[in-house]
Give the backbone structure.
Amino acid sequence: MPLDHHLFLEEIKMAHRYPKPLLDTLYCLKDHIHWEEEQVEDDEYSSSTTTTITNTNTDTSSVVFLEHDLFWDREELSSLLAKEHQNQLSNTLQKNLVLASSRQEAVEWILKVNAHYSFSTLTAVLAVNYLDRFLFSFRFQNDSNNNPWLTQLAAVACLSLAAKVEETHVPLFVDLQVEESKYLFEAKAVNRMEILVLSALGWQMNPVTPLSFLDYITRKLGLKGYLCLEFLRRCETVLLSVFAGEGGRMLQADDGGCVWVPMRRENDPS
Amino acid sequence: MEKTGVLSAKEAFEKLEKVGEGTYGKVYRAREKATGKIVALKKTRLHEDEEGVPPTTLREVSILRMLSRDPHVVRLMDVKQGQNKEGKTVLYLVFEYMDTDLKKFIRSFRQSGETIPPHIIKVILSICPSIFNIRFFFVHLFLSIWLQSLMYQLCKGVAFCHGHGILHRDLKPHNLLMDRKTMMLKIADLGLARAFTVPIKKYTHEILTLWYRAPEVLLGATHYSMAVDMWSVGCIFAELVTKQALFPGDSELQQLLHIFRLLGTPNEDVWPGVSKLMNWHEYPQWNPQSLSTAVPSLDELGLDLLSQMLKYEPSKRISAKKAMEHVYFDDLDKRHL
């Protein structure tokens, strides 16, 4: 009972800081947890009845992590913090509502395409990171003739670049534009925009992101196997909901740290 | 596209000669006109009717931006955009120039005949110094002295990559650049390198030149990590000693059989989970042989380090950081490395 109470308070605090979609995500996760628990029970039942070593080995091997993967270093966290760059676009967007609106549409588009192709969360996080850095570097806010299509073209290029960095299979430029948008760009235009984005970002395409901190925290906590995967999956869901949330809040990399608090409590065996 | 006052690649550099083919394009030795400095230009053509910047180039540049401050990773100095004779867009990666690579270095020693173990050289030299050809003697003395240094530098460079969450995935002698004068070794060609986070995701299967490919990759594991690079380091270590590839397979199956003949066919006892890997089949059953049969001139400490690099079970394989601390390197002067 005290634990539930504390968790509830944490959720209230989170709700104050984040828009409603986050709370909805947490509620949805609870339903999902129930389904997951049922599935786990089924697995336990089937493995106990069949008693074959093969089944249990198969189950465990799919979530085994190498010891190296869980290794962490004392300097790692300070290294991540030192490499983190403040997101400088937030203030700019408050003054340029047109740009804020087209950025919001671009982010929504990125998330839809990401889901369509089942890209990883990191691909989405990278794409939004590139877009924000690009928009800031080109200071669209000073352009009274700001073109929304340019932001959308940048979004296509940024998602393509993120997929190339992170995914094993990257769709063609035209196939990438699967979700409805006001514009459809030909390959040549996306090609040129890719080069423009890369030059603007100094080819630094592996930035510190919230997921870098989740990576560190997971290893620090020593979570293993199913628990590790579940923990990461929930954190990733929360991060994506923040991206998609009302107002398109700018996400600092170390926001990855605060969202794991309720997850940690839920994972406590006590 | 070009900023005012910024020279294009053609204006900034004078190409001197083509020195090789990289993962995705030609490599030239060139001189920077402004400074007279010699650099390596790696050329990548962008096909404007195709799909933009190749993932290999994108990953290599981005990862080198993260890693170039380590002395054992080749330094990327700049990225230049230009146009070739047909007006097509070309990217030039500007690297520090290194005059050779480990593959050429090893080959230059292979031509000087059979290997004689350093400790035997010392014994014979103390008894009958006059019988040796001077060049032959110095060649082998030279290599035995530098073996530890080269291996230490390789482990240090790999440890740096892994410490920054980067898998190289294509370590082989050709990708390890060297300066003959200083005997510095640098890791290069990160076109197949990848940033990784926990949990390791499914990666492309077709990575790593076959001879240096770890058994878990050959057996179809798609979740793999830093250990695949350490297997490659072990193969390179043996090749530095014998000047022949340790496991020179010409197909994936032959590659596995080469490994199994020396290290024994793996089973669930030595490698839990091996029989569940995607490409696992029934294989001929070989017993493990002593590594000294394959690398006869390596001393006991070196053989111990090598054996830890060639553990079947990836989680048991030594890490690059731990390898640097191995007693094999205890008597190496590390002050300049």
Q: What stands out?
A: The domain at 100-336 of chain B is CATH 1.10.510.10 (Transferase(Phosphotransferase); domain 1). The first strand of chain B starts at residue 13 and ends at 21. The first helix of chain B runs from residue 9 to 12. Chain B is about 35% helix and 15% strand.
